[in-house]
Write a structure and sequence with these properties.
With about 220 residues, this protein is α+β, with helices and mostly antiparallel strands. About 30% of the residues lie in helices and about 15% in strands. Strands 1-6-2-3-4-5 form a 6-stranded antiparallel beta sheet. A hairpin with an 8-residue loop joins strand 2 and strand 3.
Length: about 220
């Protein structure tokens, strides 16, 4: 079982408290994951719970309290695995309302999706949702900091700086293959494609503007 699922399973049963009292654990989810404005356990907290679990596992999170914000995090997948994020619509696909949790599996007939999440029956639980209400499944990515090299790099260069550049390019889905520290054709092509898509000068050279662009993509 992944660390993410172990952490999420460990929260099963955490429940809202009726009345004026509030569950301190739910308030902790909000406070620790950047939602300091939440001061009760009635505020919709499905996305807050997912944010908290994902943050603890050093993965990229939406940093937003609305469930559908997770449709912009990670990469889409049509073959979800337990622990991937699943986003549902509520009321209608066109509504802003939704729900988010961690995919656990399908019912035998495929009509239901089992989801481990918060604010499900006012608690952390595993619940079933209709498959037709799924907006999408997302695979999460590491939020580890990437150190980008300073200066300029071009075809023919070698060394640790090139490795740093190649690792960053692979992370933002401009693949260069093996991180070998050699600025060859694949690395040059990835840089050119990145520059083309961002309407920068297309020279295949890693410079300050390309560095700033990669940094902005990594921080999205």
């Amino acid at each position: 079982m992944s660390n993410l699922l172990k952490l999420a399973f460990g929260q099963l049963g955490v429940k809202e408290i009726s009345g004026a009292e509030h569950n301190e654990t739910i308030l902790k989810y909000a406070e620790e994951s950047g939602f300091g404005w939440v001061d009760d356990d009635e505020t919709p907290w499905c996305s807050i719970f997912v944010c908290w679990v994902v943050m603890k596992c050093n993965l990229k999170r939406s940093k937003k309290a609305n469930a559908r914000s997770w449709m912009h995090i990670g990469t889409p997948t049509s073959n979800p695995e337990p622990g991937d994020v699943v986003v549902f619509w509520r009321e209608s696909p066109e509504s802003w309302k939704g729900h988010v949790g961690f995919f656990m599996g399908y019912s035998k007939d495929g009509s239901r999706v089992y989801c481990l999440g918060g604010n499900q029956g006012n608690q952390v639980s595993i619940s079933a949702y209709r498959s037709e209400t799924v907006l999408g499944f997302r695979k999460l990515q590491s939020s580890q900091l990437v150190e980008l090299p300073d200066g300029s790099l071009k075809k023919g260069d070698t060394g640790e700086s090139v490795k740093q550049l190649q690792e960053a390019l692979n992370m933002i889905n401009y693949p260069v293959g093996t991180v070998d520290g050699v600025f060859g054709k694949k690395t040059e092509y990835a840089i050119r494609l990145l520059q083309t898509n961002a309407r920068l000068i297309i020279d295949g050279v890693y410079g300050s503007k390309t560095r700033d662009l990669i940094t902005s993509i990594l921080n999205e």
